[in-house]
Every structure is written in structure tokens, then in C-alpha cells.
Amino acid sequence: MTVNDFLLGGLTLCCAVGVLYLAVAAWAVRRFVALPRTQSAFRPPVTVMKPLYGDEPNLYENLRSFCVQAYPHVQVVFGVGRASDPAVAVVEQLRADLPDADIALVVDGRIHGANFKIGNLINMMGRAKHDLLVIADSDMHVGPDYLDGVVGPLLEPGVGLVTCLYRGRPVGGTWSRVGAMFINHGFLAQVLVGRLVGADNGCFGATMALRRQTLEQVGGFEAFRDQLADDYALGAAVRGLGLRVALSPHIVDTQVCEPDIHALLRHELRWARTLRSIEPLGYGASIITHPLPAALALLIASGGTRYALAIFAAVLACRMVYNTVTDSALAATPSAAWLVPVRDLVSVSVLIASFCGTSVTWREHTFRVAPDGQLTLDGDVRS
After folding, report:
1. pTM, whole model, 2 decimals?
2. Which residues neighbour 16 within 8 Å (Cβ) at sequence distance 6 or greater?
């Protein structure tokens, strides 16, 4: 056999494995969304902590969804680094519109490390009233039963932290839709397939619910002030106490707003380098979850033979069926067919680029990422 034969055979195998992955992933997503949701009879008071930075699409609606939970005794603490932050006006509007809600706003510019979100949470802790803490990113939108969905599992024996998956809701044009496809067809499915094979090590900033005592046992937020993957590090620290990190069946929504391809690539490259810092071999192997670029490479390497063309057409059809099944299961915005190859080519390009540098852009700042995930800020902090 020639080298070209080996290449074509290897690409054909990649296509076959990739299609098998798509079938398993579609089944895993449908299985997960069908899980029952229960409400605990015991519903202790909760403090929701929302670190904020700047204005975002639908910020008022997103924050309001946490303030109108069908749950007794909820405090919501918002935090910003400066009084001029546009998010302050949004919080003040919430306070005016929901006078009976227990809403606190912390404006504190102290910096505690390279991870500014964690620094914000450190500043906010002094206002948290309750022993059950729920930390959620600012761009999340939840239903009224959200807190029941995360507090219930946290009350189970041996559970130290509860986290949630999230689906992307595009806000804007083409590149927002491409970004949402990454979440709905890539990230979410990869987590669920990983759990099927025993890789249950995730913890996601969409939601992290834990007891104050547990947080103190792992060193408080201060222990993660220089970590890029602070959510993953918090989950690992809780597991280090001998406690479980439970995945709630409640899926939250994240608003995806990417104004152009440059913003999309900056955002996804930060995610990719975060994943690479956590598990470089596993993340590199995830290229197998993108069979369409492999089928395109096979078509080019073969010189456009009928055999390769048939494989490309079959893989493309499988990819589109997978998207349709996943979108339906998640009640997500349907994906445009013409964006499928665009999404896969962007995913593979970002994956490769993640191994070709150590810098990330986050909240208008550039950082260097050490092999252990430690952040170092490049330049001065902007006022």
C-alpha cells in the first residue's frame, strides 16, 4: 500500500468514527432532556451571585429571570467593579420594577488576582446572606423553576456542588448563529457523551451551586483568583473533598451575540485554550467529533473520486440530521443547512489554533495562560 492509500484509509476511518459519534451524541442529548425534574420538599434560603461587567444584549431580561423565581427566600447579589458600569443602571431598574425582591448591588473596584470575575465574587461575598450559594454568569436566562432544579440535587447525600449545562440562543446575525451551533451541537453533546464513557469531571459557570461551608473548605473564591478555568478548578476542588459534582437536568439559556467573525474567534479561542489547559490530550482527540472536515479532506486527497464524493455526501447528510435532532430535543433555534460546513471548519480551525499560542482575550484584556491554567495579565488594568 502507498502512503496515499494509508491517508485515504485513515480519513475514511475518521469519517466512520465521526458519524458513529454523531449517532451516540444525538441519543445522549435526547436521553438527557427526557430526565425527570423533581422539587424537594425542603427549600432552604438561597443567595444567587451574579458578577457583572458592562452591558449585554437582553441583560435586563436575563437578570430579571433570576429575581422572579418560583422559590421562597431568594436573595440576588449583583457585583460590578465601578459605578460607571452600564450594568448598574440595569440593576437599579430591576430594583425599581421589583420592589419586593431582595436585590443587593456591590460596587467595588478592588482587584484580587488576574481573574476579574472571581475578584468580583470575592468583593460580593460580604453581602451574601444565606448558606446556599448559586453562582451564575451574567448572560444566562432561566425559567421560574430554575432554583428548584439546582437546590434539589444539592440536598442529596454526598453532593457538594451542582452545575448546569446550557444551550445557545443567538442574538444577532450569522456569526451569533454559528456561535450558538458550537454550544448546542458541540460543547453540550461532548459533555454528555463524556459522561457516558466515565469522563464526569465537568463544572460550568452557567451554574455552580454549593454550600458556604464547602466553599470555605476549598479555600474560598480566593483560591481561584488566578485560574482561567475557575469553574473547572472549583469543581475539582470540591471533588477533592470526597464530594460529588451533580449535573442538574435543568438546562439554562445563554445569549450568544457575536457581531463579526473576529469576535467569534476571540471568544472561542479563549474557550479552546481553557479546555486545552485542562485536558490537552482529550481536547486534541475531540477533532474526531467533526467528521465533515475529514470527509472534505478525503474528497480533496482522492482527487474527487465518486467514492470520496459519496462519503462526503453521506457525512454531510448525517451531520444535518444530527443538528435537526439535537435542535428539536433542546428546543433550540433551528440551524441553517448552509452554516453546517462553516461551523465545522471554524471548530477545527480553532482547535488547531488553540495549540499554537498561550494568549486569550477576556473582557477587553489580554492574558497569558500557563500550562497549569494560571493567568497572567498583559499590560495594565483598564480603568
Report:
1. 0.90
2. none
